[in-house]
Write the structure tokens for this entry.
Amino acid sequence: MVALHGVGRDFDVSKPWLTRLIEAAPRQLLQAVDNLSLEIRRGETAGLVGESGCGKSTVARLIVGLYTPSRGYIEFDGNRQTPRAGAWSAEVRRRMQMIFQDPYASLNPRWRVADIVAEPIRAQGWAIHRQDLRARVAELLTQVGLAPRDGEKYPHEFSGGQRQRISIARALSSAPEFLICDEPTSALDVSVQAQILNLMQELQDRLGLTYLFISHNLAVVSQMATRVGVMYLGRLVELAGTQTLFSRPQHPYTRMLLDAIPDLEMSGRPRTPVAGEVANPLDPPSGCAFHPRCPHANPRCRVERPELKGWRDGTLVACHAVEEGRIGAD
Amino acid sequence: MPAPLLEVKHLRVEFPTRRGTLVAVDDVSFHIEPGEVLGVVGESGAGKSLTGLAIIGLLEPPGRIGAGEVLLEGARIDNLPPEAMRRLRGRRIGAIFQDPLTSLNPLYTIGRQITETILAHLPVSRNEARDRAVALLAEVGISAAERRLNHYPHQFSGGMRQRVVIALALCAEPRLIIADEPTTALDVSTQAQIIALLKRLSQRHGAAVMLITHDMGVIAETAQRVAVMYAGRIAEIGPVRSIIHAPSHPYTAGLMRSIPRIAHTGVGRDSAQLAQIDGAMPRIDAIPPGCAFHPRCPQRFERCDRERPALLATGDRLAACWLYASDAGR
């Protein structure tokens, strides 16, 4: 349904033009996303995980068209988004919607909830009768577990979880097929998070939605996704079915992330302590970007950047050590 | 048995308003032994941070301690004059807050901030203070500490800043450390490093740590005992391991079930839905009578909406729930 082909996005973080002229400094580009290829099939939930600054939110914004790609192209059901193309057509925009992380910042505080939810319908320019619009909004609010009369209220009258329900109702109002959820529950408490995740799964089953689910929380992604991509410094390092990724992680970074999650079972399983920090994306390490933190790095990793390679079970991994069999699947 | 290092007895934090007094922390009692880490867990609005602020005397007016006592090494500290309390903070109680950037002064080098703090609390010379600062930075895992002293906070990454804040809190070798969400702003891999550091330091210095967090995983990794807070009250308090594996209070049980976990079988959409606690925590101006959790509780009976349960002993812990009343009013 959605496919990214070698998509890259650079940001110009150079100093102002005059300063550059005086200091004779070159332009400086930040590669937020580089050579990313990903396919999302109809009806599935693709997960994307990584730590802050790995480019996962940039991917979300590229897909909805808030950014245009610097390289490569994005396909949505036959429509293409290339570096030179303008925005997605109105029809494509209707069919994909986004849910943001912060339910406090993503709702206009001066609008009534009913107007917030109805906005995508109005923006589509659908000639729709007032009564029908009201009925549709009521239906949407009921669908996300709110009462139709909540439409008269303002966002500040709702808690974080309820606001996220409003965001979901708004996203659903244009009857989309594809929802991009960028950390939809990160600002919520766990018991509320469970409510929202369950709601999202119910809606997916009922409406046949396709999700791209982005989160830094591996446990949440494991709950929601059917396939998971792991990103590190703008690149995909591993892509696998959820079950495979969490039971047999291949890439050393994926293993490290899994080991870093606090052990709630208190099983005392042996874990490798985490070393180092994410490198500066302005000055990424040569070769494999993960090599300075990797316990399996060798000279080849320092100079040659590994490409994503297919594995027996359909897993894609970008790692020399895995490819050469230096680290076994455990 | 030696006296506990920190003892909190029937603490009540209240906010007088025009429409009456709001009680944010209600009848909270607990103690922490030297060298022990007590986790305080709860969702936003549970009163966990206010409890911490009340102990270190940093409640923002009009918030005030309405009743109860706070004893540090057997002596009351909740009624000290502000000046004496100020000397106590930093010297005998260290504090670590969530956002390391707001805990550090952006205009001073971290070396200056650490040495000033040491000089303010300990009778040492400037040179001794500087040597101590270097030793402290090395202890919290900052490499090239000597050189890093001359750097400003913005030159550190998030994880490194939190290490600096921890070093600051440890300057005068406090007996009690209050850490309020110390890892919430950090990525998982950094979080794992900070947790390991906190654990090591509390063991080495024999300080008591009150670790406030919303993340049960962090508690499982770090604390020996945990207090679960709900609507300003302690719902359950006892050993971490047994509470995580077999919670007594229905709220703790619901909370534990709503945490997404990475199971090695049946992940993704094959997994069962998360258990959810319906509803939300009451606002502090609308705390229900009786047990504050009763409107959401699946096991409630008549007594719960009439009488407020005290902490009742059950097994190795205390739980504020009528299910454990010996006179069984059911």
Observations:
- The two ends of chain B are 38 Å apart (CA to CA).
